[in-house]
Amino acid sequence: MTKLDTAVTTRPTRIRYIIAVLLFITVVINYMDRANLSIAMPALSQEFDLTTGQQGLLLSAFGWTYAAMQLPGGWLVDRVRPRVLYASCLVLWSLATLFMGMSGGFVALIILRLMVGGFEAPAYPINNKVATAWFPERERGRVIAFYTSGQFIGLALLTPVLSWLQTVLTWHWVFILTGVVGIIWAAIWWFVYREPRDKTGVNQAEIDLIASGGGLVDVETGVKKAAKPKLKWSDVKVVLTRRKLWGIYLGQFCLTSTLWFFLTWFPTYLVDYRGMDYIESGFMASLPFIAALVGVLLSGWVSDLMVKKGLSLGTARKLPIIIGLAMTVFMLGANYTHSSAWVIVFMSIAFFGNGFASITWSLVSALAPERLLGLTGGMFNFIGNLSSIATPIVIGFLVTDIDFAPAFVYMAAVTIFGVLAYVFLVGKVERVEE
């Protein structure tokens, strides 16, 4: 065998990039099923004659079970292989979504939305575990940014489509068709996804590249050999008593508050407070999502570039988050203009910042105790996504039929608090010891 032949046979394969695409598409579907209610809400609330308080309650229903199931979901992630757990969750939340399109009352919608939230709970801890197993540290910022961008690409492209679909076929079909798409994707995930050492096409050089770069290629093997240990209160104590972890927990709450504003109240704001029709609002609502997409892709590239240039991991991961959170305050500008165009400009700047800050899961990968990766991710997502409960309800009670300004004041205050959490609580980025 020649030296050239040896070089070719030992060159790492790139199967991990296929895994990144699988995560990306799954996130697109995940967020499509989170946002479909906000798109349908103006028509749905008119049909059922809902008050703003009732709308806020319905929009928050996802968050109640999504947050409540984060710790059980994280526990499951540490014990059930991603191939099985993700496929199961996809089928269950997609069925609940599909039946929302067949429901005929407020109570039924609430119950089904609670089910969607509960079954989606393990999704991001699974994403994080897959990324940690399949990618070395130096690539993880980019891959997390890439699959996270799925939430913005999906919403930017699908918001106008779903708004048009609602106009043509009624709001019921928004839920029916998005549910069917999720069930089909569950089957695809089941047939395609495998762990690094089990995946066809992966050579030893790629496994070595991942492992030497800090990827936990044997994390599932370790779980299997450990015979699925029971959750201990000492484990919960670890993830609840570390200052660094509380910094990212609180920061995530502040970051996702902005996201949940755009996922819940933003389309209603454009229709009811800015006088746009459904199709126009669908198009205009997609522009901030496009800006967020640019932000999240740029942040991953910038963060990994800083690591490559020799900056500390803390600077490379935290700086984009802090800058992005600070930019979110621009949404206050909507309170000082009557121009719909300027409203979209301010919202696009704010949501670009939210996207630029959306590599927060890279800090979970870097800070979490190795044995408690799923539990830490679950706690991170639990506290962070309490905003999915708080944001819709608080805004629903702050605004009136003619004044939406208090909502933007609340959002600006929350994001400033997030900046303070990352600056003063996280500190040096290093893995927390048990």
Automatic annotation (TrEMBL):
Keyword annotations from UniProtKB, A to Z: Membrane, Transmembrane, Transmembrane helix
Cleavable signal peptide: none
Domain Major facilitator superfamily (MFS) profile: 19-430
Subcellular localization: Cell membrane
Topological type in the membrane: Multi-pass membrane protein
Transmembrane segments: 15-32, 84-112, 171-192, 246-266, 286-307, 319-336, 342-367, 379-399, 405-425
Protein name: MFS transporter
Taxonomic source organism: Brevibacterium permense
